[in-house]
Amino acid sequence: MNIRLLNKMFWLSLIFLMSGFSVLGQDIHFSQFYNSPLNLNPALTGQFDGDYRFVGNYRNQWSSVTVPYQTFSFSADAANFLDKKSVGAGIVFNHDNTGDSRFKTTIINAIGNYKLALNKDSNQYLGAGVSIGYTNKNLSYDPLRFDNQYNGVRYDAGLPNGETFTTGAQNYMNLHAGLSYFYQIEERKKVEVGASLFNITAPKESFFGNDAVRLDRRINLHATVQYQINDKIDVMPSIMLMRQGTYTELIMGAFGKYIVTDFRGQYQAAYVGMWFRAKDAGYMSAGYEFNNWNLAISYDFNFSTLRPASRGRGGIELAAIYILKQYKPTKIKHRICPDYL
């Protein structure tokens, strides 16, 4: 199949994802989007060098303003699911705990992905992924304070709050999909672009029985380039654009990677980078790769109108990735020589 035609088909698919659905709160997401691939795009499932990948993410935000917002994520995926080279599969568990109401969100997503090689060398391919999952949201009204509970002098928890709450929990199914394009030009030169659409079914999530309140669809566009400068140094610029409802997030930045060791199966590299979230924050990130491990930390500095309250403090974020590569010995067939030789 013609490569140019496939590339055109990919970009037309991107336009379809952006315009084919009307984009009607906000989903869980991380500053280190590049270190939470299954939350970024279902099409990135199984897209790594190895057999199995395990990813953990943790974020703590706004501790200087209010009750800290804490987000956890764990994912696991397989590159060659059921020994099918072009099939990937994964699962994601997310948990978010925010604010005085102890508003909790728990998400479990199962993902399937298919990769289509674009050439015989398999250094270019398209990926298409679909994710289906279950979400539970619940909150507690007890810690909240209302106007009716002030007796004119002080707050009195014994007074009725005057509110009528329909429910304290919401449960719904959800659907997500994505596309990706990957081109491994050389060992340390590659290009990766993708688009994903989350909350395709726009599920209802009102705590007051209002069917008009739905979870907005979310569009992600992302691109990453790795380029080798010399034997020891690589640069890796990235960009991510996200749109959900009336909210838009644009992140741009780059890593500089220094390869400490790459010899006889031993690999170590350190990387640092700086990133900017348009009209909101900037953050620095650093990490270390050691054989199959990738450990990273980042910290956000708030530049938005919340800066006077936050005193410029945003959130700290941790990421850990482990890739398991199974050793598969080569089967050698022995032949018995005939007697006459």
Short description:
The protein has 341 residues and is mainly beta. It is built from 3 helices and 14 strands.
Low-confidence stretches: 5-25
Mean pLDDT: 84
Strand content: over 45%
Number of strands: 14
CATH architecture designation: Beta Barrel
How many helices does DSSP assign? 3
Q: Share of helix among residues?
A: under 10%
Structural class: mainly beta
Overall body shape? globular
Main sheet?
A: 14 strands, antiparallel, barrel
Termini gap = 50 Å
What string, H for helix and E for strand, traces the elements in order?
A: HHEEEEEEEEEEEEEHE
CATH superfamily: monomeric porin ompg
Please compute the radius of gyration using only Cα atoms. 24 Å
The largest sheet has its strands arranged as 1-2-3-4-5-6-7-8-9-10-11-12-13-14
Could you describe the 3D structure shown?
With 341 residues, the protein is mainly beta. It has a single domain (3-324), classed as monomeric porin ompg (Porin, Beta Barrel). Helix content is 7%, strand content 51%. It has helices at residues 3-19, 37-40, 307-310, and strands spanning 52-61, 69-78, 87-98, 103-117, 124-138, 169-186, 189-198, 218-228, 233-244, 247-263, 266-277, 281-290, 293-302, 313-324. It has a 14-stranded antiparallel barrel. A hairpin with a 7-residue loop joins strand 1 and strand 2 (69-78). The chain is globular and about 75 Å long. The model is unreliable at 5-25 (pLDDT under 50).
Write the layout of secondary structure elements.
Elements: H1 3-19, H2 37-40, E1 52-61, E2 69-78, E3 87-98, E4 103-117, E5 124-138, E6 169-186, E7 189-198, E8 218-228, E9 233-244, E10 247-263, E11 266-277, E12 281-290, E13 293-302, H3 307-310, E14 313-324
Antiparallel strand pairs: 1-2, 1-14, 2-3, 3-4, 4-5, 5-6, 6-7, 7-8, 8-9, 9-10, 10-11, 11-12, 12-13, 13-14
